[in-house]
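User: Can you model how magnesium ion sits in this protein?
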Amino acid sequence: MVEQQSMADGQRSLLAASEDTYRRARLGLLRQPRRIVRRYLLLAIAWLATTDLLLASVLPLTHGQRWLFTVAKGALFVLVSAGLIWHLLRRSLSDYLRQERLARTARQDYARLFASLPVPALLVHDTDLRILDANTAAASALGYPCEALIGRHFEQLAEDGNALVPLHAGHSTILLLRRADGAELPMQWSATTVDGASTPRRLLVGVEMTAQSHADALHRMLTATDTPTGLPNRAWLSTRIDEHIRTVRAQRFAVLLLDLDHFRSVNEVHGHAQGDRLLRAVATHLRNLLDEHTLLARFSGDEFVLLASTASSGEQALAVAEYAMAAVATACGQMDAIAAPSGCSVGIALYPDHGGDADSLLSAADLALGLAKRGGRGRAQVFDPPMRLRETRHAELGTHLRDALRTDGDGLYLRYQPQYSLHDGSLTGMEALVRWRGRRDGDVPVAELIEVAERNNLMDALGSWVLSEAAAQLARWRAQGLYAGPLAVNVSPNQLRSDAFVELARAQMRDHHLPAGALELEITETVAMHVGDGVRRRINALANSGVAVVIDDFGTGYSSLAHFKRLQVCKLKIDVLFVRNVHQARDSQAIVQAMLDMARALGLKTVAEGVEQRAEERWLREHDCDAVQGFLYAPPLREDELRQHLASRRMAATGRADAPAHERES
Ligand code: C2E
Ligand code: MG
Ligand code: MG
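Assistant: Here's the modeled complex, given as structure tokens:
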């Protein structure tokens, strides 16, 4: 296809060049008579105005002599002007002949190239597609002599029914043609406008297809609409964006990529029929936003694209995004039976700043969308060039991380953060937190590590490494009599999408002889809220095998505890957001109080995360929170640091010097 296009482009420029030379030569010739007359007039006027005066001043003549001189002067004038005209005519004609010779050579080159093109090519009239020229390959493909093709209309060659498929310049179209002998001839044609020519023309370059590739391509064309929503699909969209760029050229516009939040869980929890229903509802509501300046397509799965041709700045595009997000929220709100998705996230790219064609604009919008989703969903984000740098860094980190995981976690290690009881100050738990010091990348922040792992499909491998490492460490501590309580690892949603993780957890418990409750898995509230049947089954299977399930970052997901009735959860970790200054912040107090009450009613243990101040600790103890974790006691520690920390605490506890505040206060 690319080859076909560049061949067409080459043809076009050669043809245009020959046309150009020819036109210039003709124009030049038409201008000559005016130029010649102008010079002749100048000469005549100068002659008349000067010669008599000159004669009179140089030679004082008698009347008879003057008459003689006038006759001689006239004869001289005729001679000089005849010479001038002869010279000018000769020069312009030889100019013309030279230009014409050049044009003829260019035309011959063009004709030779056109004739010898190895693929069928036709030169047609721009509007009625009348064939003006046909090459040998076209003649032999179609089974006509060249001369028989010239003068026909291109459509007369096409099978009924597909005759009028538009052959837009810059596009390729699949047509079923009829050969002279009646046989069917599937071909793909691409059209290029030949500019510079006096009559508007188009060059069509064709590629013959097999019956199968024709059927496949036709199928692809016909499926330009998407089934559940009836919206045009991704292929159509890319073509339209590119077409739009060709039409508007320098004018700015925006491409918005919308992604429904938590759509996967709708499919998983409520089934695909409900998923399709939701997509249809979203499509209907988005369609209501459309005007003649906006296009809508379904991009893939739960992604939609809006092309807003009048949004020429980030602010304007964000305003369109607001409308779209409101429309999606309304659509979601109407899905009575489905509680899951609450709206959508939007990534925005602007033409021409963020990309010069459909592909680069959509990839920019996709990068922006990724950021919007990671930033907490329900947001719109305009693309920013540093995002591409981040993308490159993430791709590199992904490769390095893959290598690290292949070489038994080279550079990966765990830090451990203890949790202490608010009732008696004892060590009640420990959380394992992953760290990565890449050999080439230095310390990689955890959030970035998790993001890189997720985007490179390495979360399973990383999660397995963390779990195995934590289980092995716990077994060593138990053997050494250092710590025998529970050790928690964090689990991301993807790890629970297959049974492998459940099997691994069971194997680790078995191989290291760990009792029930020794390993804990922390699942964030947001994930726990949207689990489908499969994930719920796996979580409960883990709980039944003695792996305790903890809800992490509780309070950020706005879920009700009723959500967890069907999940075998044993602990809630109250998010740092509510713990921060809880002793002063009235709204946090109300929320934390409610969480603690509900947890107690459901028989769940509570841990407050991120405790940094004694006053926070005091408030939490007064309100019956069970345990605390935070910098106030210890940051996440390396294994050797943890040993020191535990030893010094033991010493302090015996000496009562550095016991937790409540111990000192009591
Ligand atoms: P998280 O599970 O909620 O972990 C608690 C985070 O709070 C840790 O950040 C910890 O360093 C930090 N933290 C602890 N005490 C305090 C405090 O007093 N004040 C404040 N401001 N922060 C405190 P970290 O280690 O950077 O981990 C961030 C998140 O990354 C974790 O949040 C967890 O969601 C994720 N993560 C860490 N390790 C893993 C892992 O092995 N697997 C998975 N899937 N996620 C992990
Ligand atoms: Mg955690
Ligand atoms: Mg947390």
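A couple of observations from the model: The chain has 22 helices and 19 strands. The two ends are 82 Å apart (CA to CA).
User: Helpful, thanks.
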